[in-house]
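Structure in, sequence out. Go:
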Protein backbone atom coordinates (compact mmCIF):
# COMPACT_ATOMS: atom_id res chain seq x y z
CA UNK A 1 0.00 0.00 0.00
CA UNK A 2 1.29 3.44 -0.96
CA UNK A 3 -0.55 6.68 -0.26
CA UNK A 4 -0.80 9.58 -2.71
CA UNK A 5 0.01 12.15 0.00
CA UNK A 6 -0.65 12.88 3.68
CA UNK A 7 -4.11 14.34 3.08
CA UNK A 8 -5.25 11.27 1.14
CA UNK A 9 -3.83 9.03 3.84
CA UNK A 10 -5.64 11.04 6.51
CA UNK A 11 -8.93 10.70 4.66
CA UNK A 12 -8.52 6.92 4.47
CA UNK A 13 -7.49 6.72 8.11
CA UNK A 14 -10.56 8.73 9.13
CA UNK A 15 -12.82 6.20 7.41
CA UNK A 16 -11.37 3.53 9.68
CA UNK A 17 -11.67 5.64 12.83
CA UNK A 18 -15.25 6.91 12.42
CA UNK A 19 -16.95 3.52 12.99
CA UNK A 20 -14.47 2.65 15.75
CA UNK A 21 -15.30 5.75 17.76
CA UNK A 22 -19.03 5.54 17.11
CA UNK A 23 -21.02 7.67 19.54
CA UNK A 24 -17.85 9.18 21.01
CA UNK A 25 -17.21 11.24 17.86
CA UNK A 26 -17.85 14.96 18.16
CA UNK A 27 -17.51 16.95 21.35
CA UNK A 28 -15.89 14.10 23.28
CA UNK A 29 -12.93 13.65 20.90
CA UNK A 30 -9.71 15.64 20.51
CA UNK A 31 -7.36 14.84 17.62
CA UNK A 32 -3.66 15.53 18.06
CA UNK A 33 -1.15 15.55 15.23
CA UNK A 34 2.41 14.49 16.02
CA UNK A 35 3.88 17.70 14.68
CA UNK A 36 4.78 18.77 12.21
CA UNK A 37 4.50 15.82 9.80
CA UNK A 38 1.45 14.26 11.40
CA UNK A 39 -0.66 17.42 11.24
CA UNK A 40 -1.86 17.16 7.60
CA UNK A 41 -3.00 13.59 8.32
CA UNK A 42 -4.57 14.59 11.63
CA UNK A 43 -6.42 17.52 10.04
CA UNK A 44 -8.34 15.12 7.78
CA UNK A 45 -9.17 12.93 10.77
CA UNK A 46 -10.36 15.93 12.80
CA UNK A 47 -12.56 17.08 9.92
CA UNK A 48 -14.20 13.67 9.58
CA UNK A 49 -14.77 13.31 13.33
CA UNK A 50 -15.99 16.91 13.73
CA UNK A 51 -13.32 17.25 16.42
CA UNK A 52 -10.85 19.99 17.36
CA UNK A 53 -7.20 19.61 16.38
CA UNK A 54 -4.10 20.24 18.45
CA UNK A 55 -0.39 19.54 18.06
CA UNK A 56 1.91 17.31 20.05
CA UNK A 57 5.59 18.17 19.66
CA UNK A 58 8.32 15.65 20.47
CA UNK A 59 12.01 16.24 19.90
CA UNK A 60 14.72 13.57 19.61
CA UNK A 61 17.73 13.53 21.90
CA UNK A 62 20.97 12.61 20.18
CA UNK A 63 24.60 12.00 21.03
CA UNK A 64 26.97 14.09 18.87
CA UNK A 65 28.47 11.98 16.11
CA UNK A 66 25.69 9.38 16.16
CA UNK A 67 22.63 9.42 13.93
CA UNK A 68 20.38 7.23 16.04
CA UNK A 69 18.40 9.11 18.74
CA UNK A 70 18.96 7.92 22.29
CA UNK A 71 15.89 9.61 23.74
CA UNK A 72 12.91 11.86 23.13
CA UNK A 73 11.27 14.70 25.01
CA UNK A 74 7.76 16.14 25.03
CA UNK A 75 6.31 19.17 26.80
CA UNK A 76 6.11 18.89 30.57
CA UNK A 77 7.52 15.37 30.77
CA UNK A 78 10.98 14.17 31.78
CA UNK A 79 12.95 12.83 28.84
CA UNK A 80 12.40 9.25 27.77
CA UNK A 81 15.62 7.36 27.05
CA UNK A 82 16.49 4.19 25.16
CA UNK A 83 18.50 2.38 27.82
CA UNK A 84 19.96 -0.17 25.43
CA UNK A 85 21.34 2.50 23.06
CA UNK A 86 22.73 4.53 25.96
CA UNK A 87 24.59 1.49 27.28
CA UNK A 88 25.86 0.63 23.80
CA UNK A 89 27.28 4.13 23.37
CA UNK A 90 28.55 4.32 26.93
CA UNK A 91 26.53 7.47 27.65
CA UNK A 92 24.54 8.35 30.77
CA UNK A 93 21.38 10.52 30.89
CA UNK A 94 23.27 13.07 32.99
CA UNK A 95 25.71 13.63 30.11
CA UNK A 96 22.81 14.66 27.88
CA UNK A 97 21.71 17.54 30.09
CA UNK A 98 22.61 20.21 27.54
CA UNK A 99 20.75 18.37 24.76
CA UNK A 100 17.67 17.95 26.97
CA UNK A 101 17.62 21.65 27.81
CA UNK A 102 18.06 22.70 24.19
CA UNK A 103 15.35 20.41 22.85
CA UNK A 104 12.89 21.35 25.60
CA UNK A 105 13.27 24.99 24.53
CA UNK A 106 12.61 23.90 20.93
CA UNK A 107 9.46 22.01 21.97
CA UNK A 108 8.12 25.15 23.65
CA UNK A 109 9.10 27.34 20.69
CA UNK A 110 7.28 25.15 18.19
CA UNK A 111 4.17 24.76 20.32
CA UNK A 112 3.89 28.53 20.75
CA UNK A 113 4.47 29.09 17.04
CA UNK A 114 1.91 26.50 15.96
CA UNK A 115 -0.82 27.60 18.40
CA UNK A 116 -0.29 31.35 17.88
CA UNK A 117 -1.53 32.35 21.33
CA UNK A 118 -4.30 29.76 21.63
CA UNK A 119 -4.46 27.56 24.70
CA UNK A 120 -3.51 23.90 24.63
CA UNK A 121 -6.64 21.78 24.36
CA UNK A 122 -7.60 19.90 27.51
CA UNK A 123 -7.81 16.11 27.15
CA UNK A 124 -9.28 15.41 30.57
CA UNK A 125 -12.17 12.96 30.21
CA UNK A 126 -11.99 13.01 26.39
CA UNK A 127 -11.06 10.45 23.79
CA UNK A 128 -7.63 11.57 22.60
CA UNK A 129 -6.53 10.38 19.15
CA UNK A 130 -2.81 10.80 18.45
CA UNK A 131 -2.16 10.78 14.69
CA UNK A 132 1.21 10.43 13.02
CA UNK A 133 2.12 10.11 9.34
CA UNK A 134 4.08 6.95 10.06
CA UNK A 135 4.55 4.80 13.13
CA UNK A 136 8.26 4.15 12.57
CA UNK A 137 9.88 5.23 15.86
CA UNK A 138 8.67 3.72 19.14
CA UNK A 139 10.59 6.19 21.28
CA UNK A 140 9.00 9.30 19.77
CA UNK A 141 5.50 7.81 19.83
CA UNK A 142 5.84 6.63 23.42
CA UNK A 143 7.09 10.04 24.60
CA UNK A 144 4.07 11.66 22.95
CA UNK A 145 1.67 9.14 24.46
CA UNK A 146 3.09 9.59 27.96
CA UNK A 147 2.67 13.35 27.68
CA UNK A 148 -0.95 12.98 26.57
CA UNK A 149 -1.75 10.39 29.24
CA UNK A 150 -0.68 12.88 31.92
CA UNK A 151 -3.74 14.98 30.98
CA UNK A 152 -5.98 12.03 31.96
CA UNK A 153 -8.01 11.36 28.82
CA UNK A 154 -10.78 8.78 29.18
CA UNK A 155 -9.44 6.90 26.15
CA UNK A 156 -6.17 7.15 24.23
CA UNK A 157 -5.87 5.96 20.64
CA UNK A 158 -2.79 5.89 18.41
CA UNK A 159 -3.46 6.09 14.67
CA UNK A 160 -1.31 6.13 11.55
CA UNK A 161 -1.69 5.30 7.86
CA UNK A 162 1.37 3.04 8.05
CA UNK A 163 3.33 1.55 10.90
CA UNK A 164 6.05 -0.94 11.63
CA UNK A 165 4.25 -4.07 12.84
CA UNK A 166 6.69 -4.66 15.72
CA UNK A 167 6.42 -1.08 16.96
CA UNK A 168 2.63 -1.15 16.77
CA UNK A 169 2.53 -4.36 18.79
CA UNK A 170 4.90 -2.90 21.40
CA UNK A 171 2.84 0.27 21.83
CA UNK A 172 -0.52 -1.46 22.30
CA UNK A 173 0.14 -1.65 26.03
CA UNK A 174 0.32 2.16 26.20
CA UNK A 175 -3.06 2.88 24.59
CA UNK A 176 -6.62 1.64 24.30
CA UNK A 177 -6.17 0.95 20.59
CA UNK A 178 -3.62 1.20 17.78
CA UNK A 179 -5.15 1.84 14.35
CA UNK A 180 -2.91 1.41 11.29
CA UNK A 181 -4.08 0.92 7.72
CA UNK A 182 -0.90 -0.84 6.69
CA UNK A 183 1.46 -2.78 8.96
CA UNK A 184 4.54 -3.99 7.10
CA UNK A 185 7.05 -6.08 8.98
CA UNK A 186 9.66 -3.35 8.65
CA UNK A 187 8.99 0.38 8.25
CA UNK A 188 12.02 2.49 9.16
CA UNK A 189 10.68 5.75 7.68
CA UNK A 190 7.31 7.09 6.57
CA UNK A 191 8.42 8.77 3.34
CA UNK A 192 8.73 5.66 1.13
CA UNK A 193 5.06 4.86 1.72
CA UNK A 194 3.88 8.14 0.14
CA UNK A 195 3.92 9.37 -3.44
CA UNK A 196 4.38 12.97 -2.28
CA UNK A 197 6.05 13.56 1.08
CA UNK A 198 7.27 17.12 1.59
CA UNK A 199 8.67 18.61 4.78
CA UNK A 200 5.79 20.26 6.63
CA UNK A 201 6.77 23.86 7.41
CA UNK A 202 6.03 25.77 10.59
CA UNK A 203 3.66 28.02 8.63
CA UNK A 204 1.73 25.05 7.23
CA UNK A 205 1.45 23.55 10.71
CA UNK A 206 0.13 26.82 12.15
CA UNK A 207 -2.45 27.21 9.37
CA UNK A 208 -3.76 23.67 9.86
CA UNK A 209 -4.20 24.23 13.59
CA UNK A 210 -5.92 27.58 13.11
CA UNK A 211 -8.45 26.05 10.70
CA UNK A 212 -9.39 23.19 13.00
CA UNK A 213 -9.14 24.66 16.52
CA UNK A 214 -12.01 26.49 18.24
CA UNK A 215 -11.31 30.19 18.74
CA UNK A 216 -9.31 30.67 21.93
CA UNK A 217 -8.73 26.95 22.37
CA UNK A 218 -10.28 24.94 25.17
CA UNK A 219 -8.72 24.83 28.62
Amino acid sequence: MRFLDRSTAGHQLARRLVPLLGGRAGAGVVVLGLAPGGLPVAAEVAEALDAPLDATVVRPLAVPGHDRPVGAIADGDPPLFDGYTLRTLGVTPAELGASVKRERVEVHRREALYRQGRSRLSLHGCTAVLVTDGLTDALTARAALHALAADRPAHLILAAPVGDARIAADLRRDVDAVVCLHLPRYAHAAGPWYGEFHEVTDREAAVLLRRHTPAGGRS
